[in-house]
């Protein structure tokens, strides 16, 4: 009974497809006529003259002999769209000439709208039929099992025959279908649906024979599953990418379905590699992207999963399989991926801005293939980097092979931007993990015999491997720049950055972890070699006189400076390192006198930043225990002074350099370093030859304020001789900083009235002189010098700051006269002292008024008015209540006389101004 039902279903399937095929044959001529009419309309619209075919056969032959490369590139078009379809320019095949690739285009053709009846009959019926077939097979098997009518062997044989018949029916429909119908009803996928159903059936039958009924052994099951998978993959060339995905899934799942006590790892990864290569070959002919990306992911997951869950790792087959994947990506698919005709600049820059260029660089097709390939290589490389035990090969070797293979692809293919980036990051990251700098992500895995640890295997292998990787990255970089930059400047710039950063980074990791931090000649030779290669390579590329090499050359120049700086660190320390870094930068500045490389001045800027970084790390340069106590003449003088002098000399030599940014930067940093050198010498001298983080005294802070004021004047002078925004705004910034120091430190934080600091035994030459009077004079001179050169508001603030400091000096001097050396607030006030304040304030107010009138300085007159107002307020609020007897009377008498005099003086000024105007008129 069951056999009869099975034969009935098979007969029904055969009859159904026979009827469908007959219907297709009956409509063949009509569809050919419609196709010829459509082609004729398109050619007439394009202005071409054509000859109508006289027979059907030539028309069919002409359509079938269209080159395969162009057929593959014509995407299926939904017949429901009403708009005409214009085929994009096709990508030429290797057998076609470049002229064919440029000129060949498919004619525009308008497709008729597909009716609802056509959709329902051609698509939904097929899909529903496929589902019915699958359910019928399932119900048939279920019925036979429940009834016990036939043996398992017969069931499996019947299911296998059913699967083969489905695949055969799909192939029969594909071969007999008219191309016109296949195109119009492409979404129905009749042959593909049948073939996929047959493949799934055969997969199920094979696994059931092995895993459920034990009819076949693991080797036979493995071979049969592999054959089904590869056959499905081969048929995908005829039926599309979806079937290829099914075949790939079967090939990737097959090893997981077969269990054995003694697995052959070479056979496992050999099978996976062959499966990947078959997928890549099929994808190359059809230009698929999705399925090969899944193949990359599948092989990468197999490698990582095997390494995680296996107690003893055979590294060789894993590495061989992954290297084969890299090689296949280089030469099979995507290979030399071309997105444009070959005689055009494929990756020509589209904008002068950095961001569009970066976006174009990172989005180059086929990005999905490149990203998945990179992850499939980098993840196993990282896993090798943290393996401590249980591997047949040294992890450093395994990691290096994978990373260098990925880097080779990134250097050899213009589209392989992501492999280049991932390889660079993986090289640095894996070297860190091998050196023991990483994090212990996975302490134990599997059965506990394979240990992943952040503790590096510190032996004689990792250091050489790390340095060899750096040298090979440098060679890859130079070769990529030399061969690719002319037609692809952004790609050359990317590899210039990689060639400068990765070798140097690997050298630093090797030196810090495995080198002699005192003096290491091996790492010094490594750094010197990298610097010379980069500098020599830049010189050689400059001889080409090609603008495309400008950016890579400048990157290589900066990289050479960094390499030489690394060399200095490997051989020296302390003061010698601090001196040699700016010396190297100054040598590049001297080279800028004969070369126009834009990066040359920036090397000095980097040198200054390195020096400032070293100063921030160790302000004493040589260490507190080695710093002498002699003022000025100690290690601080050359340690701070020589870099500052070299920075100043560089700024002067480059005063005519066309690059405004670097010129301004050098001017600013030279000014800063000069001021810092003087300030640190002052602090050293003022603190007894010891540099500490203690709060400075008023005398020390006064020197800093005077230095800042002086710096403002120097920058103003430089701006007058050589106008620069750095000098202009830097001079005003220095003045503002000085004013902030006055407000915070001189008046409040370090004021001896609040701190109780002794002012010294001398009446005039004391702390108040250096803390208040000298800065007041300096502010006055700076305000006078800035008149007409800086904004009026800024000049006014300078003058007011000077006046405030002068007022503070006079006031505190009065207190010192009455109270002695210590003028702390806890000592209170004397009546004579209180009266003296009024006298002094009025005298200063009158003096400021005279000076303001003499120099026509409104700011001084305003300061005079403020002091007079303060004296009046003091007289009425303080003197009236605190003074007694004659002092109270004298206070108000003096105040009245001064106020009357000031009034008469102002009347004189106001009456003199019109006369002057009349005289001028």
Automatic annotation (TrEMBL):
InterPro entries xref list: DUF2339_TM, UCP035905_mem
Record's keyword annotation contains Cell division: no
Ranges that cross the membrane: 6-24, 121-141, 153-173, 185-209, 215-235, 265-283, 290-309, 315-333, 369-387, 393-411, 418-441, 461-481, 493-512, 524-541, 548-566, 572-590, 597-617, 637-654, 666-686, 701-718, 730-750, 762-785, 792-814, 834-852, 859-877, 889-906
PANTHER family in the record: BLL2549 PROTEIN
Record has DNA repair as a keyword: no
Keywords: Membrane, Transmembrane, Transmembrane helix
Protein name (database record): DUF2339 domain-containing protein
Pfam families according to UniProt: DUF2339
Organism: Agrobacterium bohemicum
């Amino acid at each position: 009974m069951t056999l009869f039902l099975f034969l009935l279903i098979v007969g029904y399937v055969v009859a159904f497809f026979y009827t469908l095929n007959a219907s297709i044959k009956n409509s063949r001529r009509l569809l050919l006529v419609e196709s010829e009419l459509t082609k004729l309309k398109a050619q007439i619209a394009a202005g071409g003259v054509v000859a109508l075919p006289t027979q059907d056969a030539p028309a069919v032959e002409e359509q079938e002999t269209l080159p395969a490369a162009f057929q593959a590139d014509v995407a299926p078009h939904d017949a429901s769209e009403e708009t005409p379809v214009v085929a994009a320019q096709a990508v030429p095949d290797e057998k076609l000439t470049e002229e064919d690739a440029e000129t060949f285009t498919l004619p525009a053709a308008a497709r008729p709208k597909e009716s609802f009846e056509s959709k329902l009959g051609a698509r939904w019926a097929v899909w529903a039929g496929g589902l019915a077939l699958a359910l019928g097979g399932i119900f048939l098997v279920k019925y036979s099992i429940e009834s016990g009518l036939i043996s398992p062997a017969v069931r499996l044989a019947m299911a296998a025959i059913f699967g083969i018949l489905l695949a055969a029916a799909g192939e029969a429909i594909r071969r007999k279908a008219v191309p016109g119908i296949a195109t119009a009803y492409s979404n129905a996928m009749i042959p593909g649906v049948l073939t996929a159903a047959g493949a799934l059936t055969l997969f199920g039958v094979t696994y059931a024979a092995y895993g459920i009924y034990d009819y076949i052994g693991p080797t036979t099951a493995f071979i049969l599953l592999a054959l089904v998978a590869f056959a499905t993959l081969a048929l995908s060339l005829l039926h599309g990418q979806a079937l290829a995905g099914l075949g790939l899934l079967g090939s990737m799942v097959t090893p997981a379905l077969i269990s054995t006590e003694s697995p052959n790892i070479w056979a496992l990864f050999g099978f996976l590699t062959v499966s990947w290569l078959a997928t890549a070959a099929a994808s190359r002919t059809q230009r698929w992207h999705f399925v090969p990306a899944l193949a990359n992911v599948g092989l990468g997951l197999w490698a990582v999963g095997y390494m995680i869950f296996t107690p003893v790792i055979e590294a060789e087959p894993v590495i061989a399989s992954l290297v084969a994947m890299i090689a296949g990506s280089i030469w099979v698919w995507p290979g030399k991926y071309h997105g444009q005709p070959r005689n055009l600049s494929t990756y020509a820059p589209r904008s002068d801005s950095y961001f569009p260029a970066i976006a174009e660089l990172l989005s180059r097709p086929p990005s999905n293939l490149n990203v998945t390939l990179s992850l499939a290589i980098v993840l196993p490389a990282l896993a090798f980097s943290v393996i401590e035990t249980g591997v047949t090969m040294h992890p450093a070797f395994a990691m290096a092979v994978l990373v260098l293979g990925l880097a080779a692809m990134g250097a050899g293919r213009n589209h392989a931007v992501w492999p280049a980036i991932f390889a660079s990051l993986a090289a640095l990251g894996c070297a860190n993990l091998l050196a023991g700098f990483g994090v212990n992500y996975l302490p134990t895995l599997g059965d506990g015999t394979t240990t992943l640890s952040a503790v590096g295997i510190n032996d004689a292998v990792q250091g050489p491997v790390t340095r060899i990787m750096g040298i090979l990255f440098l060679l890859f970089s130079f070769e990529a720049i030399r061969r690719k930059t002319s037609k692809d400047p952004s790609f050359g710039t990317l590899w210039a950055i990689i060639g400068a950063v990765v070798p140097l980074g690997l050298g630093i990791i090797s030196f810090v972890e495995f080198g002699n931090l005192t003096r290491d000649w091996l790492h010094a030779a490594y750094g010197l070699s990298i610097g010379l290669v980069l500098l020599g390579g830049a010189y050689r590329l400059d001889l080409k006189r090609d603008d495309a090499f400008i950016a890579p050359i400048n990157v290589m120049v900066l990289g050479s400076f960094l390499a030489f700086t690394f060399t200095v660190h490997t051989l020296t320390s302390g003061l010698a390192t601090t001196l040699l870094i700016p010396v190297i930068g100054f040598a590049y500045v001297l080279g800028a006198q004969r070369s126009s490389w834009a990066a040359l001045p920036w090397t000095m800027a980097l040198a200054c930043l390195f020096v400032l970084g070293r100063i921030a790390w160790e302000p004493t340069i040589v260490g507190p225990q080695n710093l002498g106590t002699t003022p000025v003449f100690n290690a601080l003088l050359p340690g701070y002074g020589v870099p500052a002098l070299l920075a100043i000399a560089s700024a002067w030599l480059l005063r005519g350099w066309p690059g405004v940014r670097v010129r301004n930067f050098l001017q600013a940093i030279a000014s800063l370093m000069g001021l810092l050198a003087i300030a640190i010498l002052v602090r050293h001298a003022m603190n007894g030859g010891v540099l500490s983080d203690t709060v400075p005294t008023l005398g020390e802070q006064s020197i800093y304020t005077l230095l800042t004021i002086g710096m403002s004047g120097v920058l103003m002078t430089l701006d007058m001789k050589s106008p620069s925004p750095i000098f202009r705004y830097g001079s005003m910034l220095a003045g503002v900083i000085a004013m902030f120091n006055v407000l915070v430190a001189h008046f409040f934080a370090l004021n001896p009235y609040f701190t109780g600091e002794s002012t010294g035994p001398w009446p005039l030459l004391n702390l108040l002189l250096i803390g208040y009077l000298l800065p007041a004079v300096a502010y006055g001179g700076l305000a006078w010098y800035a008149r007409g050169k800086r904004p009026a508001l800024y000049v006014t603030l300078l003058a007011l700051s000077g006046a405030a400091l002068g007022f503070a000096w006079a006031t505190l001097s009065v207190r010192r006269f009455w109270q002695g050396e210590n003028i702390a607030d806890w000592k209170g006030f004397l009546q004579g002292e209180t009266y003296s304040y009024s006298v002094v304030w009025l005298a200063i107010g009158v003096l400021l008024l005279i000076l303001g009138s003499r120099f026509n300085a409104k700011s001084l007159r305003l300061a005079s008015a403020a002091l007079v107002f303060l004296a009046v307020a003091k007289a009425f609020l303080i003197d009236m209540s605190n003074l007694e007897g004659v002092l109270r009377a004298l206070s108000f008498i003096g105040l009245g006389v001064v106020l009357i005099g000031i009034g008469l003086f102002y009347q004189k000024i106001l009456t003199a101004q019109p006369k002057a105007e009349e005289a001028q008129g």
